[in-house]
Design goal:
With 199 residues, this protein is of the alpha/beta class. The protein contains seven helices and seven strands; from the N terminus they run H-H-H-E-E-E-H-E-H-E-H-E-H-E. It binds zinc ion (ZN). The site of zinc ion (ZN) has 8 residues, from loops.
Length: 199
Amino acid sequence: MDLYSGKINKLIEELSALPGIGNKSASRLAFYLVNEPREHVERLTAAITDARQNVRFCRECFTLTDEELCPVCSSEKRDHSTIMVVENSRDLAAYEKTGRYMGVYHVLHGAISPMLGIGPDDIKLKELMARLSRGDVSEVIIATNSSLEGETTAMYISKLIKPTGIKTTRIATGVPVGGDLENIDEVTLLRALDGRTEL
Ligand code: ZN
C-alpha cells in the first residue's frame, strides 16, 4: 500500500530526480506544491515549460539565450576579436557580473573528462574552431575551471589552436583548484583574468 496518493508519489519521484534534491526535500516540495493556490502552481509550470521550449543556444557563442544572438554577441560595444572560452553559461554570467570583460565568449557546455566518457566531440569545440577559422580573432582566453577536467580541456584547446597562430592565454590559477567559476568572488575572477599567461 502506498503511503501517499499515487499522484503525490509520482510528483516526489519527479522532483527527487532534480540535481541537489534528495528524497526529503522532494516530499517537502511536493506537499508544498499541492497546498499552494492553483494560480501559483500554474505560473510555475508555465515558466518551466516556456523556458524549456524557448531557450536555445546563441548562434555564435552557444550560451543559453532567448534570441538567435545573445546580448553579448549582438552588442557593437564588445570586442569581437577576443573570445573567452568557458565551460557553461553560469561561468559566463560570473564574468559578466564583474562588468570589466569587454570581449565575447564561447560556451563549451562541459569539459573533457575521460573518466565520465566525455570527449572533445561532446562539447562545443568544433564550433569554436569554426569561429576561429573565420580569421577575425586575435586572442582566445581559456577560462575553464581549474579542476582536472578544466585543465585537460584547456590543454587540449591550446594544442588545437596552436597551428592557427592565434594568441592563446589561460586565466591565472588564483582560482581555487576544483572551484566552480560561478562561486568565486569578482575580485578573484578579475585577478585571474588580468594575470592570464600565454600558452
Ligand atoms: Zn552569444
